[in-house]
Amino acid sequence: MAFTAFASQTTVEQAPRKRSFVALVLLLPGIAYLLLFFLTPLISLVITSFQEPDLYGDIGDYVTAFRWENYVDAVGEYWPLILRAFGYALVATVLALVISYPIAYFIGVKARRFPLLQSLLLTLVIAPFFISFLLRTLAWKQIMSDEGPVVVFLKSIAVLPSDGHLTGTAFSVIFGLTYNFIPFMTLPLYATLERLDTRYLEAGADLYASPFTVFRTVTVPLSMPGIVSGTLLTFIPAAGDYINASRDFLGSSSTAMVGNAIEANFLVLQNYPAAAALSIVLMAVILVIVGVYVRRTGTEDLV
Amino acid sequence: MATSSTKSGASFAESGADLELTGISKRFPGFTAIDSLDLQIPAGSFFALLGPSGCGKTTTLRLVAGLEEPTAGRILIGGKDVTDTKPFQRPVNTVFQSYALFPHMTILENVAFGLRRRRIRDAVAKAHEALALVELDHVSSRRPAQLSGGQQQRVALARAIVNRPALLLLDEPLGALDLKLRRQMQLELKAIQTEVGLTFLHVTHDQEEAMTMADTVAVMNKGRIEQMGAPEELYELPRTAFVANFLGQSNLFTGEVVAATADAITVDVGGVPVVVPRARSQRHSGEVAIGVRPEKVTLLTEAPLPQAGRNVFGPGRVTDVSFSGVSTQYLVEVPGAGELVVFAQNMVFGPVVQVGAEVWLSWNADHGFGLDDDPGTVPRFVPDASTESIAIQRRIALEEELEQA
Ligand SMILES: Nc1ncnc2c1ncn2[C@@H]1O[C@H](COP(=O)(O)OP(=O)(O)O)[C@@H](O)[C@H]1O
Ligand SMILES: [Mg+2]
User: Fold this and answer.
1) What SMART domains does the annotation carry (chain B) (predicted)?
2) What is the CATH number of the domain that holds A186?
């Protein structure tokens, strides 16, 4: 039977885009801000990264040059720290996602009918921000210290050998990273899941999909915008973090990340070009990873 | 994974399954949506659930699909108690009132979704076939957001039908289509249903759709089924005032039963004896409510001779004449009986009588029916809330206002 006659050929039309003078004026402060506070330090950083030591000056005096070997030296010396930074950040991001998704799902979907509970739980997620994150990380160092209750208990049940530690290990650093960035993961996830239309989940169940299949084929794809922004908000700062892995907090020299190397070169060794080169390498690698990631997850047409 | 129930049966249902609801109630906090509902739908039948908006039709379908748990009662599909099973385990598919097409999938992926879950071979080819059936194969690579409402509705139809479920639930599946396309889809649906012998449970608030498509129609009101039966039976012999006025229009009267024989009862309506067959009335004594369909009533310009087997009202005065193509609707004010509606075929050019004319009304006593309602609760005529009577009231109010000005 042919009823192509009334099957109208619909084309989706976008609202025409007008060049607006007002929009340009409104954008100006933002553009000025970006120029001033992002581009200026970036250019300064690039210039620093190519400087060479002043032959006649003190230690820490540098002159402008084009010493690209700075990059080779920095990467050659610190590549294990760069790898470690991305490894830790990756593990912490995955852990934060696994922990945050159920929390966000519960607050955003299950607790929908109870707005009061929803607000309360959201407050609990944000509550850690009320205390400086340095203090919180120090508190964890106390809790996980050799005399602390956790280590004592783990030793008593022989999970930890009698000469074992928690602080200064990869475990404590990843723990600290995960813990500190969970809110950054939970909030974007919540924002997406809160708007999730559960009728799609019902349609999935009606079409023979088990709860797990519905989750895999409907819930996850529909919450992709939240997953992508959450993982980016966690991964990027975690990769450059230097607090958790610092020996003053949860790390030791064997857990140092690239952030710690940058900090040491800037503040202790006064090797500014090396620190700048490392920063730029870190930034470039993050940009590449994020670019590939966003492209792979196909979020362009979801957001 | 819990696909064991469907793994082996990776093929289409060979025939429809019957559905049985026993004592189903559904209470939401502070609101009873369904009240002790009993329903039997034989396998392979086209069953329509007809009722006004908010009467619990969608809730009934959600209970059958397993998306809602009944407060009380059991649900049996094909003789198997499925009350405690999850939606994905039930041999049922739904065309949702809100379509619920997956926004992140193409139209083709949407339609193939159910087939893929059941690992049915040639899912893509079958999905294309189903899309061709609703004349939408040319948009198979688009996303739902790129389709119009009517197109989305047809995709929702294809997505459910492609699975050939033993029981298909349709929640107002043609509501967004224009008249011509709706007719076409009605025929298409009916053809699929008879061809494969599936069981269709079709929910609608469109009485014409229910009457033309269904083998059996159940009229639902406030969470209860008022009456159930073949469309003609429901129309010819409504049992309650709600059915009498929801399915078409009716002239309703109340009065005392003054005589009763083995075949008929006689009701005194404002002094006029009206005869109703005993077999066609629900109550046979005391105060009763009776009625007759407007097209069964004949309009006469002269007083008819008394004749056995015919009820006569009159003389009355014509208060309104409205022409509607094949028929003309007359409103006649009869002292003692109130206002009656009469539909007359347009056998001659123009109306037979004009407003203000004196007329008599007569109908074959066999065409009357007696209702089961308490006479006190029966609306005289079309319910006051109907759009028609609201429009009439508005017009009267407006005319009064104009006269005063
Ligand atoms: N989840 C719910 N919570 C409370 N009331 C509901 C819920 N779902 C439906 N209802 C109520 O139940 C009644 C019947 O709804 P529904 O079955 O959708 O009617 P319809 O016949 O229009 O499809 C309505 O009055 C509606 O407000
Ligand atoms: Mg509904």
Assistant:
1) AAA
2) 1.10.3720.10
Confidence of residue B345 (pLDDT cuts 50, 70, 90): confident
A178 vs B15 pLDDT, higher one: A178
Mean pLDDT lowest among A62-66, A299-303, B3-7, B130-134:
B3-7
Determine contact: A200 vs chain B, CB below 8 A: yes
Q: Does residue B33's CB lie within 6 angstroms of at least one atom of ligand 1? A: yes
From the list A6, A8, A197, which residue is nearest B180 (CB)? A6
- Compute the distance between CA of residue A95 and CA of residue A250 in angstroms, rounded to an integer: 18
In this structure, whether the domain defined by B237-396 belongs to CATH 3.30.1300.10 is answered with no
* Exposure b/e, B40-69, CB count within 10 A at least 16 = b: ebebbbbbbbbbeeebbbbbbbbbbbbbbe
Average pLDDT of the residues of chain B: 88
What average pLDDT does this structure show over A71-83? 94
Contacts (Cβ under 8 Å, ≥6 apart) of B96 = A199, A202, A203, A206, B156, B171
- Nearest-CB residue to B117 (from A7, A12, A213): A213
* pLDDT at residue A302, rounded to an integer: 44
B111 phi/psi in degrees, rounded to 5? -70, -35
Q: Quick one: pLDDT at residue B327?
A: 86
Residue minimizing CA distance to atom 19 of ligand 1: B54
Closest CA to B360 of B404, B304, B319: B304
Q: Hey, of B113, B118, B162, which one would you mutate to test binding to chain A, going by the most A CBs within 10 A of its CB?
A: B113
pTM of the entire predicted model: 0.83
Contact A137, A244 (CB under 8 A): yes
**CATH code of domain B19-232:** 3.40.50.300
